[in-house]
Design goal:
The chain has 97 residues and is α+β, with helices and mostly antiparallel strands. The chain has one domain (2-91). The chain contains 2 helices and 4 strands; from the N terminus they run βββαβα. The chain has a 4-stranded antiparallel beta sheet with strand order 3-2-1-4, with no helix packed on it. A hairpin with a 6-residue loop joins β2 (16-24) and β3. The longest helix has 10 residues, at 82-91. It is elongated and about 40 Å long. 14% of the residues are buried.
Length: 97
């Protein structure tokens, strides 16, 4: 199953951006990717949170380095993979995706 986690961050200047984590947990094709939306990779976070340490998010408006304390909300979404959708349509189980 493909999942996306959206971590919304708000800078003290008011600018909002998102750290998007996307992953596929299927055993045969597992992968993970993180990206920034409306943020830059110029931050200086050096703490225990792996996501913020790896992504180093900063505000493109004022240049402030963003940390976990700037998280305003998080959302998790799950999507059926192409293979899972095909299997559901063949066997007629569950809702049509």
């Amino acid at each position: 199953m493909l999942t996306r986690k959206f971590t919304y961050v708000t800078c003290p200047c008011g600018h909002r951006g998102v750290i998007v984590e996307t992953g596929n947990a299927e055993q045969r094709a597992a992968w993970y990717m993180a990206s920034l939306r409306d943020l830059e990779h110029k931050g200086a976070y050096d703490g225990l949170d792996d996501l913020f340490a790896e992504m180093s998010p900063s505000c493109p408006k004022c240049g402030a380095s963003l940390t976990p304390s700037h998280i305003s909300s998080q959302k998790l979404r799950g999507f059926a993979s192409r293979g899972e959708r095909a299997m559901l349509s063949v066997v007629g189980v569950g809702p049509r995706l």
